[in-house]
Amino acid sequence: MKEGIAVAGTITVDEIKRISKYPNKSELTTIQNISRSIGGAVSNCSVSLAKIDHTIPIEIVTLIGDDEKGEFLKERLREYRNIDLNQVKMIGNTPFTDVIQDEFDHSRTFFTYRGNSSLFDENTINLKNLKSEILHIGYILLLESLDKEDSVFGTKMAKVLKEAQELGIKTSIDIVSENSSRYEQIVPPSLKYTNYCVINELEAGKSVGIDLRGSSGELIIQDIKKVLLKMKELGVKDWVVIHTPEGSFGFDGLNVYSIPSLLLDKKFIKGTVGAGDAYVSGVLYGALKGLDLPNSMKLGTAAAASSLFEEDSTSGIKCYEQLITMYEEFPKKDEIKL
Description:
InterPro entries: PfkB_dom, Ribokinase-like. The protein is an alpha/beta fold. It has ten helices and 15 strands. The strands form three sheets. Strands 5-4-1-8-11-12-13-14-15 form a nine-stranded mixed β-sheet, with helices on both faces. The protein has a four-stranded mixed β-sheet with strand order 3-2-6-7. The model has no long low-confidence stretch (mean pLDDT 94).
């Protein structure tokens, strides 16, 4: 019997640099603080899940370089007894990301070295050896080999997801946010073989060609439901979820849900790195435990909010009981009616 969650794909070391304000081109700014943490979908989601529930089995599938950054990642991941590293392979150079954390507006800017991520391909995951009930893969648009075209399934990623479903494994995807026109070509093939698609508003909108942010940055509320329904039409089997700072929105094939974000005092927000992965982890944990979509979204909302209390991507994540209490007790933003 399969149990637990496998997290596959991108892993990095985050080199976090806190600055007072992001400079214009050719200007100078001062780095106020430097720290290092694990990063990428594999690190962020596996550790978030381990902190939410230390009893669930978690398998990770990724490539780590035989270098100092790779040793750092292994050392940190081995701190969690329920994380299985048996499908971690060592090759090439470990990817890393310079995360520039703006103290002025709490935004973050990423400069990524992809390293060995291009080597992660359809043969990296030994699907038949996976013991997990759910396989989460991230990120589409960042895993070059899986983004390549496949004559039968559209992309290599879609092929892997289809093979996983045929083995009785439910699938989940995440997408990287980038300023490009690649989404509509690369993302839809994978949606046909996805059980849970939990992504942000930029990724969702670009995947179906409908912008969800206006020119002034405002959320285009009237188009959110349209995007949810379109992504379900493209093949997502169970849940489509769009998370935003204002709130999150989900569709389970029957009902559309709007869940408000928690209202946090800005002075307590130390960083936004990994908030999206924390949200995904909460939703996937809910799915694993048989929660319905709205309650899974509430758990994801609390997980994302808790991650904001620390500079890195996972230190702030609380356990399941604390997250439930957090969502119930914290003030919330106004619910957005769709």
